[in-house]
Each structure stands twice: as C-alpha cells, then as structure tokens.
C-alpha cells in the first residue's frame, strides 16, 4: 500500500496524536545531573564555559541535591575538585575528602536521591592523568589499587553507585572485589565502558581542573574511529562485574550506543558531555538556535538510540519541561 491510501501525516496533525504515536519517551526518570564539589563554604562559582553550571561547596551541594529531588530527577553524579593535588592523587580516597563530604551532604539533604560518584584520579593528581604515572607513562596495574581505594571511600560516605571513568584495564574487577571485601556488595558500578579520547571534554576540564600537564589521554581512552572495540570493552566490564555500561560522549557516538542497546540486555547510560552542552548553549545565546528545544531534541536522540540513563548538565531545565 502507498499514497494516497497511506498518508503518514495523519498521525502528526495534532499534538495529542503526536504524543500517542511517540516511539521514544524522554522523562525525568532518565536524567542524571553532574555536580562539581569544591572545598570551602557557601561557594557557588560559575563555570565560564558552561552557562548555568557551578562549582559548589558541600553546603551548596546539599541545597542543590534538595532542588534536584524536588524536580523529580532521580540521581546526581559528583565530581570532587580538591584544593590540593599531588602525584599519587592522595585526596581521592580520604574519608574527609571533597567528594566524600559532598556525598554525605547530598544524602543528608535528599536521602532518597541516588548519589553516583565519579571514580578517577585526574581531578586529584598534579599531573592531571587518570592513573599513577611511572617513568613518564600512566601505569595501568598500580593505578587499580588507588581507584579501588577511592571507590570504597565513596561507598563509606554513602554513595549508591560508583562510576570509574579512568579507562584502566581491569579497574571494574578491582573495584568490585574491593567493595565486596569492605562490605559494600550492594553498591553498584556504572562503568564508563566506552569512553573516547574526545575533543568535547574541554569545558569539563576547566570545571574540574583536570587537564593533563603533559601528553594526552589517547593511550588509555578509546580511539574515536573504533566501534567494535567499544563493544569488546563493554563485554569485559560486564564480565568484571559492571551493573551499568556507559558511552561517553553521547551525540558523536550514538551509533555505538545503538549497537550496545542491540547487544546488551543491561541498563545503558550515555554522557551528554560538557562540550555538547556548551555548543548548544553558545548557539542559543547568539540566537542561532531555540536553546530549550534544541537541548530536548539532543536528549531525545540519546534516548532513542537506547540510553536508560542520560547524564546531562541540562537535567534541571529538561525536567522542568518533561512529565515524570
């Protein structure tokens, strides 16, 4: 059958029909808001390259957590930005560290909010790399112990989910074993399973003060042309005990996300990263795009590709426009 018997426009002619015919439904339940935790009190410092995003002290994190929960957003992911850094990233696993205090503050303010923590060393090291550096190179195996210790300290602080973003081989298994030994078998792991060496992380590195002091991260983050390799990374992380798999960035890698959705019957996350957010915000500020509409369209595309969890700096704005 074809035109004129088939008229595809019939189900598009009213908002009610469009709503009833939608295949992908974005809701507040899909959203995770990233937050940057810093030292001090009553700190609410804007991030210049990400309008509407702030670096927050623990007390401000508590206030933000309450607002997030009131909006119906189910989760936040916390990134710690310490005042002092060193070669080993010693602040990453301190029980009184900046991320740990932020977790405690968020859980006190909004006990039912799911608190996820980023597990990485880049924010804590003076060299800005995601693992331990030996002989000028990022050493994989020595980094695993440090990452596992950080994950356990986050769990002690009250984190519901830990999210290793370092891309060291074997880190999911090391973290799972350490959590289980420490009595945190119920704490889930969201693995940054397919994290690409992307140009879209610039604004984040400003916010987290985590740009590498030398070299780059191409030796451990994934090469952008590779898709089959991403699926292998996901298989390995699942075998090591990951509960949720993530693709990062989201929009340039929707093909990877869609293929993962076909391949794996587990929850999938995608990170709508700082550069993706900043581009849309910059275009909207210049009047080149309808900002809110373009942002929702971007998030819907991530949902349509197969994401169950969408990490986005636009979570609050999106939630205000979405049904539960």
Descriptive account of the structure:
- This protein is α/β, with parallel strands linked by helices.
- It has a single domain, classed as Aldolase class I (TIM Barrel, Alpha-Beta Barrel).
- It is built from 11 helices and 12 strands.
- The chain has helices spanning 15-21, 58-70, 98-109, 140-157, 171-181, 202-208, 228-240, 254-263, 274-285, 291-305, 315-321; strands at 31-38, 44-46, 54-56, 75-81, 114-119, 132-134, 137-139, 161-164, 188-195, 244-248, 268-272, 309-312.
- It has an 8-stranded parallel β-barrel, surrounded by 9 helices. Strands 6-7 form a two-stranded antiparallel ribbon.
- A hairpin with a 2-residue loop joins β6 (132-134) and β7 (137-139).
- α8 packs parallel to α10.
- The radius of gyration is 20 Å and the shape is globular.
- It starts with 14 loop residues before the first helix and ends with a helix.
- The model has no long low-confidence stretch (mean pLDDT 95).
Outline of the structure:
With 324 residues, the protein is an alpha/beta fold. It has a single domain, classed as Alpha-Beta Barrel (TIM Barrel).
């Amino acid at each position: 059958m074809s035109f004129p018997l088939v008229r595809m426009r019939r189900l598009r002619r009213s908002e009610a029909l469009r709503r009833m015919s939608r295949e992908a439904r974005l809701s507040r339940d899909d959203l995770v808001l990233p937050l940057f935790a810093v030292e001090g009190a009553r700190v609410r410092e804007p991030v210049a390259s990400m309008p509407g995003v702030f670096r927050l002290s623990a007390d401000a994190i508590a206030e933000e957590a309450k607002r997030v929960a009131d909006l119906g957003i189910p989760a936040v992911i916390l990134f710690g930005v310490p005042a002092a850094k060193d070669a080993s990233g010693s602040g990453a696993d301190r029980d009184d560290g900046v991320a740990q205090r932020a977790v405690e503050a968020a859980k006190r303010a909004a006990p039912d909010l799911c608190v996820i923590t980023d597990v990485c060393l880049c924010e804590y090291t003076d060299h800005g790399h995601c693992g331990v550096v030996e002989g000028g190179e990022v050493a994989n195996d020595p980094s695993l112990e440090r990452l596992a210790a950080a994950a356990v300290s986050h769990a002690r602080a009250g984190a519901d989910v830990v999210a290793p973003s370092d891309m060291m081989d074997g880190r999911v298994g090391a973290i799972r074993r350490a959590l289980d030994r420490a009595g945190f078998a119920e704490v889930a792991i969201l693995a940054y399973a397919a994290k690409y060496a992307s140009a879209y992380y610039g604004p984040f590195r400003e916010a987290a003060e985590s740009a590498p002091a030398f070299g780059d991260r191409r030796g451990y983050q994934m090469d952008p042309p590779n898709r089959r390799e991403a699926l292998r990374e996901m298989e390995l992380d699942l075998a090591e005990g990951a509960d949720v798999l993530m693709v990062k960035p989201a929009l340039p890698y929707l093909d990877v996300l869609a293929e993962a959705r076909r391949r794996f019957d587990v929850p999938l996350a995608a990170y709508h990263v700082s550069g993706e957010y900043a581009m849309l915000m910059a275009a909207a500020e210049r009047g080149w795009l309808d900002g809110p509409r373009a942002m929702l369209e971007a998030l819907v595309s991530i949902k349509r590709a197969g994401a169950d969890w969408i990490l986005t700096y636009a979570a609050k704005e999106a939630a205000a426009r979405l049904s539960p």
